[in-house]
Design brief:
This protein is of the alpha/beta class. It is about 30% helix and about 20% strand.
Length: about 140
């Protein structure tokens, strides 16, 4: 992760599931990023998000971050999962993220889609950690 050294990381989330753990990873000595944690109700939030080289968003508000809130070349990571009305779909609902994907992708160096972005990796790591826990328990009980 040394490529993030001196990068400005803005995390729009302050919880213990996404915001705090990611912040602690980015500020580690071997990573060396400059991290700003923002609550979604921060006044003039775009003043912070426009400075981000790496923007992480997890607020569960559909399309909360728009293209005018990011700079060219941003790396945008979207943890949001929001269902919006979609009369064209079978279920009449569609899954979208917290970042306006269509608008921001034009400015971003990289962006995670919703669906199909961080969700599959989250599930993969959950299963991996479940297997590790089972192996530890088996070893303890043996």
């Amino acid at each position: 992760m040394s490529s993030q050294s001196n990068q400005n990381v803005v995390i729009v989330n302050v919880d213990n599931l996404v915001g705090m753990p990611l912040a602690s990873i980015f500020v580690r000595e071997d990573v060396g990023a400059n991290v700003t944690l923002c609550h979604p109700s921060t006044p003039d939030l775009s003043n912070y998000t426009r400075r981000a080289d790496i923007l992480v968003v997890s607020v569960n508000k559909p399309r909360f971050i728009s293209a005018d809130m990011v700079k060219e070349g941003v790396i945008a990571i979207d943890f949001g999962a929001n269902y919006i009305e979609d009369s064209a779909g079978k279920t009449k609902k569609r899954l979208v993220g917290d970042i306006d994907f269509e608008g921001v992708k034009e400015k971003a160096e990289a962006i995670t889609p919703v669906p199909g972005g961080v969700g599959p990796m989250t599930i993969t790591m959950l299963l991996c950690n479940t297997i590790k826990a089972a192996e530890i328990m088996h070893h303890i009980q043996s």
